[in-house]
Amino acid sequence: MTGSSEPNAAGNTGRKLPQYIAALAASGGALAAGTFLGWTSPAEIPLVHQQEYGFPINAEEFSWIGSIANFGAALMCFPIGILMKKIGRKWAMLLLVLPLLVGWLLIIFASNVAMLMVGRFLLGSGGGAFCITGPTYTAEISDASIRGALGMFFQLFITIGILFGYVVGAAVNVQVLSIICVVIPVAFGLIFFFMPESPQYFIEKNRVEEASKSLIWLRGSHYDERDEIKELQAEDAKMRAEKISFVQCFQQRATIRALIVSLGLVFFHQMSGINAVIFYTTTIFDDANAGIEASTATIIVGVIQVVATLLATIIVDKVGRRILLMISDFFMAVSTILLAVYFQLKETDETQVENLGWLPVLALCLFIATFSIGYGPIPWLMIGELFANNVKAYVGPLGGAFSWLLAFLVTKVFTNLRDALGISGAFWLFSGISLVGTVFVFFIVPETKGISLVEIQRMLSGGKVRPTRGHDNPAMECDEKVESR
């Protein structure tokens, strides 16, 4: 982030600092998305048990308040892709400030449950759309040498936003928390207004002069952007030539296998119980009688999430995707087993856990840490790697919608699971799913570290790829042997 430079194809240099600035500004949308995810945990007890807003809210109603944001996010996955193509990445992101602003205002001035639910739905719509626009914008403005690092900003800022909700929620009441949260999307809009549009969008619209100005802003005034403009034009022409229909997309073997892998990763990502843990962290610690303030324990969990996500950005290209996913899922299973055992003992006889208040703290910290180094960021990274460019427009929104719908299901059903099975039964279920997920990664998920995008498509089609360290996938290897006969 010091403005260092490297030569382009023509021998000119481009600065990196402007790209960091633009990516950080875009990540303000992730911060806004993180705050609505983190809001639920500190809000549940004050709203449900203390009736802080002056009207009754039961547990079932709050489960809808907590989960309906995910439903709003799922619904926005498809229209936001169209909007980005019509008005551009920048203006689509700026337009998302409106639902976030209205959503927070409805929550701040809520006088009934319906206002809270509509507000949360709008927050989910805006925040969920940011999860598509933000990474797209960042990838398109970034030089290849720093694209991976800048791409991880989004997940990092989501975790910071969740932590922000935990910390502020521990210090103020729910209404004040909501007032503070509404400042974030407004600040994002004011800052991001001065950032450039994606040069790729301008090329798509045949606005070459504006694409040049955007690249000069991003790479510096001494950068000769002509070679990069030619590359973007060539890629755009190739995309138009290779354009296929929605039906043709799902007739390709590589696409089908990539879809199985990516949707499987998204499924195990959400069904691990991560959203239940994030949304109800305070309640879990309160139920556990851990010996420390539930809000303090929640903040500790949030800090661990941020630190572990930061660690993942550093090691993912060195260690590899598969090994991090397997470690992540296995230890998530271990941590939810520990939680299940603790709560089962507590449900049987509370005296058995009088001296075990540290156990749920340890288990949740382990869960969040191992989730954040693997199943948190890597599924989204691999979705970007597994699909060919000419099918991403179809499968990208599909993966996003599937993820948010599962998040809605888990968040909504967690309260019902807790009532039907007991909190121990819910965590036994999550642990079983995580163990199955570990097996899924071992047998189905390929290692993409160090493999070019062209080779990944060849591998998914059944062809051989050059050997890489860590590319020991039994399923792929068997398939390659069959294809080679």
TrEMBL record:
Its main location: membrane. This is Facilitated trehalose transporter Tret1. PROSITE patterns: MFS. It comes from Aedes aegypti (Yellowfever mosquito). PANTHER family: GH07001P-RELATED (PTHR48021:SF1), PTHR48021. Keywords: Cell membrane, Glycoprotein, Membrane, Sugar transport, Transmembrane, Transmembrane helix, Transport. One of its GO terms (molecular function) is trehalose transmembrane transporter activity. Residues 469-485 have a biased composition (Basic and acidic residues). The chain crosses the membrane at residues 20-42, 62-84, 91-111, 117-137, 149-168, 174-195, 258-282, 294-316, 323-345, 357-381, 393-414, 426-445. It comes from the Eukaryota. Residues 466-485 are annotated as: Disordered. The gene is 5579014. Belongs to the major facilitator superfamily. Sugar transporter (TC 2.A.1.1) family. Trehalose transporter subfamily. It is a multi-pass membrane protein. The keyword Cell membrane applies. Residues 22-449 form the Major facilitator superfamily (MFS) profile domain. InterPro entries: MFS_dom, MFS_ERD6/Tret1-like, MFS_sugar_transport-like, MFS_trans_sf, MFS_Trehalose_Transporter, Sugar/inositol_transpt.
